[in-house]
Amino acid sequence: MKRPLHVLLLVFAVMLPSAVDAHHGVASVGIAGPEGPGAAIETASSLTLPRNTLFFMLKNEHASFAKYGFAEPENKEYLSFCNAAVGFGVMPWLALYFFQPYNIKHQDSLGTTSGFADTSVMLNFGFKYDEGFRLNPEKESIDELEDWHFSAFVSSSVPVGGTDLVDRRGGFWAPDMQGGFGSPSLGAGVAATKVFAGDFTYLGELSSQYFIEHEYSFTTYQFGTELRLNNALVYKAFGKGVFRTDVLAEVNLLNLMRDKEMDAAGKMKELDASGGLIAYASAGVRLYWGRVSAGFGAKKAFLSFLNEGEDQQGSEGLEDFRLMFTLSTTVGL
Amino acid sequence: MNHRFIPALAAAVFFPASAYAHDLWIEKKGAEYVLQYGHRGGELMPIEAAKLKAVTCVDAKGAKSDFLPGASFQPKAVTFKGTCACLSAFYHGGFFSLTPDGEQNLPKNKVNDAVKSWESREFVKFVDAAAAGAQKPVGEQIEIVPVTNLTKLKEGDKATFKVLVDGAPVAGAAVARDHNPVGETGSAGEIRLKVKAAGLQVIDATVKKRIDSPEADNLVVTATIVFEVPR
């Protein structure tokens, strides 16, 4: 199994389920409670942060994997991705984010590896359609928050996570079980958000993550490029004062290219037992209390076309389930 | 600690800005303009004649005339006869104080244990969107001025409004439509709103300013603009 599940973390970072900040419109906080577009758990919101606003987020995703006889005694049992994010609204249409993941991964008989993964930095550029395309304005009324909002984002990781971690037996963990990628990974994407019929919000996102090859002390490896197409539908089930409850459903498509590893001849070769196409469905709830938002969700693959699925234990698409939790808030400066 | 302060303190903390005032609006009914106070479509409040300080009619050429002398006061409405491109009224609610015994229409130096106090000034204008010059500022202490031409506005369209205080755009004014908060003005004093339904549009903007006078802690000025969008 060569699929680096922890690369998801960076993509989640890019996706920035910015919860509270789907409600950055001034009308939303301090005047009328959390109004405006809803936010999903995984699919990005295209809304940017208000200028001079700080954003804080903690997120955890726990993936538990189905075990197979062929993978004994080294079945991957679970991966837990924790992520802390800080964002800042540089302009109403430009936000800067920093992400610091901390991952815990367990593989039967080999033990548990944990530690900080690669830091990543993201720039999010926001614009909208209101009688023509325009940059996100300084402030938006509740009516304006119902417009189509778009964003384009780019990101890069800074390889600070460990790349020479060893397992219980003293051998190096495989690249996908290491803390970091060793080399920067580059991300880019676009997102769209639209409120319709008053209480519904559609969110869509297309993003990609490219991994630069890295020379580990034990191999040279390049993770396959990822392409994601996320769609979410959020329904405002309750809203009164500073309280709001949303329920949401998402469909997340993930296409993974094959990983590559340097062969004995010094050439990068595509690996078997990596890559594929997976479709996830997820459901969740998001609670708001003024500027604070907490989201809970569960996710499961309902379709998977893995290249060599029978050999890809621990890969995306072969989870028993994924559980997600996120907590976020904003502070105006 | 004085236990009467506890509910008063709670009231002070949770007292929403919108509670500072009821809506004040003008409708055109036939050949008359009707000024009313309270909640549109709900309970109406009496209008005190002494608090209605000014009523100004601006005609299509921009000429102003005083309509207050011709006002007809009824228990919960004031009517005016005439034709205006814009009819503006100033209602001075006076001083209010929040005390452990509730809200009183008195300055804080005339009550005991005031935990919050304010002076309320409300300005309302009815704009005949079709009339020339109707969308120009009247020159009130606070007013909402349409930036978008209201003439061709229809249901579903968006319009931009500017909030002026003493003639200058003001940022951070709390804006409401039919008493429901919809946003704040930006640094240019502007906000953009959608016409949710044709008919009478009532939009108000409130600005609170600390004054710390013997009578009140704050001055709360509210502007309301009223206009029709054809059905």
CATH class group of chain A: Mainly Beta
Instruction: Give the helix tally of chain B.
Output: 1
Which CATH architecture of chain A would you pick? Answer: Beta Barrel
Shape of chain A: globular
Uncertain parts of chain A: 1-33
- Helix coverage percent of chain B: under 10%
Envelope shape of chain B? globular
Based on CA atoms alone, the radius of gyration of chain B comes out at 18 Å
Portion of residues in beta strands of chain A equals over 45%
What quaternary form is this?
A: heterodimer
Gap between N and C termini of chain B: 58 Å
**How would you sum up the major sheet of chain B?**
9 strands, mixed
Placed side by side, the strands forming the largest sheet of chain A appear as 1-2-3-5-7-8-9-12-13-16-17-18
What is the total tally of β strands of chain A?
18
Q: What is the largest interface, and how many residues per chain?
A: A-B, 16 and 17 residues
What's the structural domain tally of chain A?
1
Element-level helix/strand string of chain B: HEEEEEEEEEEEEEEEEEE
Structural overview:
The complex is a heterodimer of chains A (333) and B (231). Chain A has one helix at residues 7-15; strands at residues 53-65, 76-91, 94-107, 111-116, 119-129, 133-135, 148-158, 185-196, 200-211, 214-215, 220-222, 226-240, 243-256, 260-262, 268-270, 276-289, 292-306, 319-332. Chain A is an all-beta fold. Chain A has one domain: Beta Barrel (Porin), CATH 2.40.160.40. In chain A, strands 1-2-3-5-7-8-9-12-13-16-17-18 form a twelve-stranded antiparallel barrel. Chain A has a four-stranded antiparallel β-sheet with strand order 10-11-14-15, with no helix packed on it. Chain B is mainly β. Chain B has one domain (5-229). In chain B, the strands form three sheets. In chain B, strands 4, 5, 8, 9, 10, 14, 15, 17 and 18 form a nine-stranded mixed β-sheet that branches. In chain B, strands 1, 2, 3, 6 and 7 form a five-stranded antiparallel β-sheet that branches. Mean pLDDT of chain B is 89; it is low at 1-20. The chains are: A mainly beta (333), B mainly beta (231). The A-B interface holds A 25-27, 31-32, 130-131, 137-144, 146 and B 17, 158, 174-175, 180-187, 191-194, 196.
